[in-house]
Amino acid sequence: MRAVRWHARHDVRLDDVDEPQVTGPTDVIVRVDACGICGSDIEEVEHGPVVIPVGAAHPITHAMAPITLGHEFAGRVESVGADVALPIGVRVTATPVVWCGRCDACRAGQIRRCANIGVIGLSQDGGLAELVRVNAAQCVSLPDSIATWHGALVEPLAVAVHAFDQIEIEHRSVGVVGFGSVGASIATVARTMGATRVVALDVDPRRVADADSRGFEAALAERATDYELDVVVEASGAAASLATCMAAARTGGTIVLVGIRAGSVPLPLKEAVYGEFNIVGRVGHELSEFRQAATLISNLVAPLSPPPTLVTLEASIEYLMNMSAERIDGKVVACPSM
Question: Fewer beta carbons under 10 A from the terminal one: N or C of the chain?
Fold first, then answer.
């Protein structure tokens, strides 16, 4: 089958590989209908390996580069293991989180904090392929009311839901720095959860215009000091964005770090100390939040518009190589059957 595989930094190829097989009682083989391209994929192409295992296999998946990319995917069940109740042909998406089930965090039900956490599409072969193998515990059925490609948006929406875990935003003002696909999902979830004001900040005028077209208050990041927001979410991973968050947050406000990048970023220490900010990190999502996102998405189809650009697997390589250069607008979803 065809699969888009990461071999090394700046080296992504469309390979012909063996089809995944059912090898265990809880395995599910999904025929992929849609797979989103995420900023994490771009980070691996431009700066990797960041998460992808190179030189030593991942402790849970036992996989290493080359790895098939793609962790935001949806499709139809093709085949299942003996212990799986999912019907053949049912539409599903799957959390990409891979957990060991044995560490303290897993036993506490916090799979995102697994000591050996992996990610489908980064730590094992993912959804930028015709078929992908997952575990039944990772699967969530899609509502009948949405298109299959919407299922590829559930994962970033789950990340958005988790961004506000244990953070009160109802009747409060929220800012989002970085209005990419995850940032747009975070802004949408904030509005859904009762934030009285949602402000999108970005360095790219096109993304500012996109946020404005979706009904959000929007401005260039250079105007961050115009605001005093209760909660500000960093959703880009850009080196300068932490400073932007501090500029936009009120004294004593909360800053949520969601964006990921390789290496270190500068910390404006004086501003952090005098601002008395509560700075917290949020990564991934729990299974309950992934299911919540799958339910939410049927009500958020219009706010999540405009629809993504749908491309072939072959074309997805060009997008993977070019999106970081900001030559591409909007979400890109690869459809292997195209």
Answer: C
